[in-house]
Amino acid sequence: MHLEENEALIAARKLITATKVDGIIFVSVKEGSGESKDKDGRYFRYFNLINITSLFNLSKAKIIGRPWITTTPNTQTSWVNILLKRLK
Predict the structure, then answer these.
(1) Rounded to an integer, what distance in angstroms lies between the CA atom of residue 51 and that of residue 70?
(2) Mean pLDDT of the region 45-68
């Protein structure tokens, strides 16, 4: 994710608000901890199973199941995935 913590919370709220009631949201972010910038100055924020749950632990959304991790075979990049359902 290319957003700092406060911006990520705002984006999470907007994503949920933009989803119709009972709609499903899928989010996938790079696994890791902390933050970094690449050689071009692009900001990266990393997540694990705990902090992705905290980011989306909002009153207007319910986490479906448990977050899970997948790995892209060709790059060995790990991703934290989460499914949410928009509530009333």
Answers:
(1) 16
(2) 89
